[in-house]
Hints:
Layout: H1 2-63, H2 70-83, E1 91-95, E2 101-111, E3 122-140, E4 148-149, E5 158-162, E6 172-177, H3 183-192, E7 197-199, E8 203-208, H4 212-222, E9 239-245, E10 255-272, E11 275-283, E12 285-286, E13 290-291, E14 300-305
Parallel strand pairs: 4-9, 12-14
Antiparallel strand pairs: 1-2, 2-3, 3-7, 3-13, 3-14, 5-11, 6-8, 8-10, 9-10, 10-11
Helix pairs in contact: 1-2, 3-4
Amino acid sequence: MVQARSHKKLLLFKGKKGSVSIITCLLLSALLGFMALSVDVGMVYIEKARLYNAIDAAALAAALELPAGEAKARSVALEYLIKNNIDPDNTVIKISPDNKSIEIEGNLSVNHLFAPILGIYNSDVAAATKAVIGPIKTVNGGIRPFAVEIFDYTYGDVVILKKGAGDGYCGNYGTVALGGTGQSTYRNNALYGFSGTLSVGDYIDTETGNMSGAINAIRDYIQQENSTFNNFSRDSIRLWTLPLVDTLEVNGRGQVQVVGFAQFYVEEVRNSGGNAELVGRFVQYVTKGVIDMSLNDTGAYGVKLSR
């Protein structure tokens, strides 16, 4: 009797053990399935992030060339897409009629590793971005110590950035004091740019005097680069950001208000008998700076992404 009961318990135990094994196998299969699918889902997210990074980079690079025209901006966008292994045929590039923004839409087909077991072979991912250029409100570093009265020039116009002796107004010749006064500070700012921050609405002091010694140093500096207005690179040492002011007609050292910023290609220094002039040409250019779309367009632009 005891042996019969023991035999029944043994059979029952074996039956339960077999059931546990089956359940364990099913759970492991499900777990492995979820793990496999998570790998495929992870690949989709990685590829989508890669697509976003690629079109963001292409849009930002192309936006730098928007002032040069649609053809140049589109060419740069395609170049960056190819560099980032995105097929241009899978993208759409739209440039606004005023050349102030560029939109890029892209899509990718991601092949799965494990989902084909369930009949899912690939997933499509899409991304879109937009880069906008606008007038600069704030510039942090790199501003040169010359000011130009607000103007309505066109691309390529010649502008006297610093007037010669006798051509100024009450001791002012177009120079401004940024971060301090005196020829040493002025010379350092002229060669390397003011390291501080300047914004539209700020007041700055004019710098009196002809500063002919510093102008000679500027001449030697720009002559290190063999470029011309019709052939210069984006990193040219002759490209300068200058503040635009409401007026330069102040008596001696006085305050003037910053009303905008502009970009100039510094073409030459004219220095005859101490009569030193700095001559530049107005350019439309995208540089670093905080933008404000409510400001007047003065040719110096910043750029931002807008999705």
